[in-house]
Backbone:
């Protein structure tokens, strides 16, 4: 009887234990209330946000011990997003001439001072710019040559034109001669250049060079160099265009005519004509000694003789010239251009004829045809 009671007790105990385990399992799945979570937080136990509900089983082993609470760490990351570089294409960026003074290039200028209604000089209100091309450089009548290099994106197409404006001819880039028919150079950029290089950069510079030859001329001649639009090609704004070209000015030898002016009671007679290379310089000033440079002046001195004739009566030197017959700079003027020269001239008379003779020395010859006119009344008087 005692054995049956013991077995029954065990069965009942097992049943009660299993029932308790089921209750505990169910309880562990019970969702923790908001109030309970807040209570845990006040105890230093932070329950992170989750995608599911938090049950009692999730938190039953957490200890309410502030010593083991971990502070939240915030990490801030700084970064730079780099753009993927876009390749440069179809750009023609630079044109270089091996001879730096071969072309006259356009410049933007602005009028700073103007005259008001009273003739006073005042600052201009006009801030706009105009494009001008001054003749700072020029070629002589014998012509010249230079090499061009075009840089930019390799493979970029371009069209280049050189035109003789005076004679309406075009440069043939293959024969290097000017022809009557239209001609242009269509080519591609063969080297990357985005800056000015040394014109004597040896073989690297000569690679892909374009030759320009200007022939000899007996008249003043003007040439324009410019790019022409080509498909999607993008030309740098500083490159020459047909509206704003690079200009070559070619000046032949210039003549200077020395003679008397026609004045009241006088008519000019004998003249002297000299022909010199345009702008030729024969002597120069040494800035240290303020003396003439080491040029043989006698080789460049020219004897001139000019005469004037009285229409009636006989001539005599003016009272001033009777004392000193030397001809001075105030006794003549220039027409058509300035001639920088030194003179050693003397005036004399013989009846109706007045004469100036002596030597002149050009320091700088004129660029174009010039007349040097002497005023007879400042040197002679009619008796």
Residues:
């Amino acid at each position: 009887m005692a054995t049956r009671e013991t077995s029954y007790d065990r069965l009942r105990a097992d049943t009660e234990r299993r029932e308790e385990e089921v209750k505990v399992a169910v309880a562990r799945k019970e969702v923790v209330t908001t109030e309970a979570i807040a209570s845990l937080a006040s105890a230093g136990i932070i329950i992170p946000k989750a995608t599911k509900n938090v049950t009692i089983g999730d938190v039953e082993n957490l200890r309410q011990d502030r010593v083991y609470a971990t502070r939240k760490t915030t990490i801030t990351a700084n970064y730079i997003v780099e753009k993927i570089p876009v390749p440069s294409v179809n750009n023609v960026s630079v044109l270089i001439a091996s001879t730096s003074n071969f072309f006259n290039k356009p410049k933007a200028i602005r009028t700073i001072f103007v005259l008001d209604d009273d003739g006073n000089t005042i600052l201009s209100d006009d801030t706009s710019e105009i494009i001008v091309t001054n003749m700072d450089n020029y070629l002589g009548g014998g012509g010249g040559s230079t090499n061009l290099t075009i840089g930019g994106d390799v493979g970029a197409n371009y069209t280049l034109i050189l035109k003789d404006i005076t004679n309406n001819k075009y440069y043939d880039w293959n024969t290097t001669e000017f022809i009557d028919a239209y001609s242009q150079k269509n080519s591609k950029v063969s080297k990357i250049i985005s800056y000015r290089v040394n014109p004597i950069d040896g073989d690297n510079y000569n690679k892909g060079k374009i030759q320009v030859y200007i022939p000899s001329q007996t008249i003043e001649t003007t040439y324009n160099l410019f790019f022409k639009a080509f498909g999607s090609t993008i030309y740098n704004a500083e490159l020459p265009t047909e509206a704003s070209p690079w200009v070559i000015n070619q000046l032949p030898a210039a003549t200077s005519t020395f003679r008397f002016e026609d004045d009241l009671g006088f008519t000019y007679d004998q003249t002297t004509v000299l022909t010199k290379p345009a702008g030729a310089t024969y002597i120069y000033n040494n800035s240290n000694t303020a003396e003439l440079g080491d040029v043989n002046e006698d080789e460049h001195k020219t004897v001139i003789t000019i005469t004037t004739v009285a229409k009636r009566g006989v001539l005599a030197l003016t009272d001033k010239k009777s004392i000193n017959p030397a001809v001075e700079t105030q006794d003549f003027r220039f027409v058509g251009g300035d001639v920088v020269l030194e003179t050693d001239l003397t005036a004399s008379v013989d009846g109706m004829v007045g004469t100036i003779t002596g030597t002149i020395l050009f320091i700088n010859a004129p660029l174009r045809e010039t007349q040097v006119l002497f005023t007879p009344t400042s040197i002679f008087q009619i008796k």
